[in-house]
Amino acid sequence: MNPAKQLPVRGVLMALDPGTRRVGVAVTDPLQVTARPLTTLPGAKLGALLDALPPLLLEHEVQGLLIGHPLLEGGQRGAQAQRAETLHHLASRRWPDLPAVLWDERWSSAAADEALRMADRAVQRLGRDAVAAAVILRSFLDARAH
């Protein structure tokens, strides 16, 4: 099934850019027009990451979760993609009423680096991971609009 059809078209969406050391977090506005970096969480242990998410999910009234899926350049699944798939599986089991999808994020880090070069200091303080999550979220919103 198309990931764009699995998430609601209204309400806040949250994106995660899962790394082994840090996980970037970004959110949309309730109308899903904008995507903004929110924070960075420790990413070494998936269980601890999942334990850290509920306050953010509640505070922002998140209606859907987008998890960056770092496929290799040719579309193959490497270790990081498999880790993202595990995160998706665990999140779906923990929050069965919160739709969660994987989204191809192959070039999000390069786009985040470019965005950080042009960003103001407040955004730069959030760091590359949070900005990469916003890039992932923006790419999803743009793809769904087409």
Quick tags:
Nucleotidyltransferase, domain 5, 6 helices, alpha/beta, 146 residues, single chain
Largest sheet: 5 strands, mixed
Major sheet strand order: 3-2-1-4-5
Within the CATH hierarchy, at the fold level, what is the topology? Nucleotidyltransferase, domain 5
Q: Which class in CATH terms?
A: Alpha Beta
Overall geometric form: globular
Structural class: alpha/beta
Query: What would CATH call the architecture?
Result: 2-Layer Sandwich
Number of strands: 5
Overall mean pLDDT stands at 85
Beta fraction of the residues?
15-25%
How much helical structure, as a percent, in the residues?
40-55%
Radius of gyration: 14 Å
Please summarize what this structure is:
The protein is of the alpha/beta class. The protein is built from six helices and five strands; from the N terminus they run αβββαβαβααα.
